[in-house]
């Protein structure tokens, strides 16, 4: 049996965002074609997506928000909350499907059926707050999966590591008072980039103080800046926390070629970061890593860097 699972599902392309929207179905076409060409799809165990339960989704999102989102989709509204968060009549169900696929991947890892997984889902999730949408995100896929792991498998040390160029505000806020989830985010500085959160002094609240770690980078930051951040801050923090599973919000928009980012990373750093995460998982988490697609809007970057990410997960 393959030790790494992969979730690819044509239904995720039915979340229609319209011509010109950066978070479009073509992202998944590019990714799937590149993974198939590299032989990585055949080398992984195929994962299936089913609709997530409302109970699981409501561990992060309010009933009122979900009702409002469902109604807006069914009534044909063009977007929910902000113009960036485009919706179509099928978007609510496709978002539930994305959550369900990520949750089932998390369960398979927790049960020991696979060691690691990559879920190429859309819509993305890390900007979605409890009661409203932001930045293309409708439901917070990985945050919901973290709560399932805590509830069903009694994990009390879950790490969420986010290297999308945009700060995962929704993920941070979901766990900012929760010491059982360490959220580490490497992202563009909020003074210069959406969503304007993720300053270094945002450390969590109450019992969760110290369990949010934000590492913002000024425009033009390079591979070496990210390597130094991992060596000086991420690796020691993970060692102190000793997570039982590592969840990754994998965004590829910190690349120099991405149209929505402002950093200057190259292809090479994505394989390096992933291998470093795998090494940390081998040391602390029985090798268990769940990675979920977030941003990344340049087709060339996706076609090169996502295969490197998945190849490193197979190590």
Order of helices and strands: EHHEHHHEHEHEEHEHEH
Give me the CATH architecture, please. Answer: 3-Layer(aba) Sandwich
Strand pairing plus helix content: what structural class?
alpha/beta
Major sheet size, sense and barrel closure: 8 strands, parallel
In the CATH hierarchy, what is the superfamily? Answer: Histone deacetylase domain
CATH class: Alpha Beta
Percentage beta strand: 5-15%
Number of strands: 8
Q: What is the helix tally? A: 10
List the strand order in the largest sheet.
Answer: 2-1-3-8-7-4-5-6
Percentage of residues in helical conformation: 25-40%
Overview of this protein structure:
With 315 residues, this protein is an alpha/beta fold. The chain has a single domain (4-313), classed as Arginase, Chain A. It contains ten helices and eight strands. It has helices at 26-37, 40-43, 54-57, 63-74, 91-110, 141-153, 169-175, 223-241, 267-284, 299-313; strands at residues 4-7, 45-46, 116-119, 158-162, 181-188, 212-217, 245-250, 289-293. Strands 2-1-3-8-7-4-5-6 form an eight-stranded parallel sheet, sandwiched between helices. Helix 1 crosses helix 10 (299-313). The longest helix has 20 residues, at 91-110. The chain is globular, with a radius of gyration of 17 Å. It starts with a strand and ends with a helix. The mean pLDDT is 97.
């Amino acid at each position: 049996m393959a030790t790494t699972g992969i979730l690819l599902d044509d239904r995720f392309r039915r979340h229609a965002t319209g011509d010109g929207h950066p978070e479009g179905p073509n992202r998944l076409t590019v990714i799937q074609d590149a993974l198939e060409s590299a032989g990585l799809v055949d080398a992984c165990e195929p994962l299936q997506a089913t609709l997530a339960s409302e109970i699981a989704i409501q561990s992060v999102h309010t009933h009122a928000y979900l009702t409002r989102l469902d109604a807006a989709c069914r009534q044909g509204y063009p977007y929910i909350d902000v113009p960036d968060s485009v919706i179509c009549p099928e978007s609510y169900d496709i978002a539930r499907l994305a959550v369900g696929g990520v949750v089932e991947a998390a369960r398979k890892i927790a049960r020991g059926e696979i060691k690691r997984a990559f879920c190429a889902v859309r819509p993305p999730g890390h900007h979605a707050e409890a009661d409203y949408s932001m930045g293309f995100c409708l439901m917070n896929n990985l945050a919901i999966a973290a709560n399932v792991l805590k509830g069903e498998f009694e994990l009390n040390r879950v790490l969420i590591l986010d290297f999308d160029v945009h700060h995962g505000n929704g993920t941070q806020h979901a766990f900012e008072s929760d010491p059982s989830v360490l959220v580490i985010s490497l992202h563009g500085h909020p003074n210069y980039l959406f969503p304007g959160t993720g300053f270094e002094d945002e450390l969590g609240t109450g019992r969760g103080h110290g369990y949010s770690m934000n590492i913002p980078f000024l425009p033009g930051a390079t591979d070496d800046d990210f390597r130094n951040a991992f060596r000086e801050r991420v690796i020691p923090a993970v060692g102190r926390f000793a997570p039982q599973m590592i969840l990754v919000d994998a965004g590829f928009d910190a690349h120099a070629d991405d149209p929505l980012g402002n950093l200057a990373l190259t292809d090479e750093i994505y394989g390096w970061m992933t291998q470093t995460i795998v090494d940390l998982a081998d040391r602390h988490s029985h090798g268990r890593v769940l990675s979920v697609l977030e941003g990344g809007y340049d087709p060339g970057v996706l076609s090169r860097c996502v295969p490197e990410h998945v190849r490193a997960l197979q190590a």
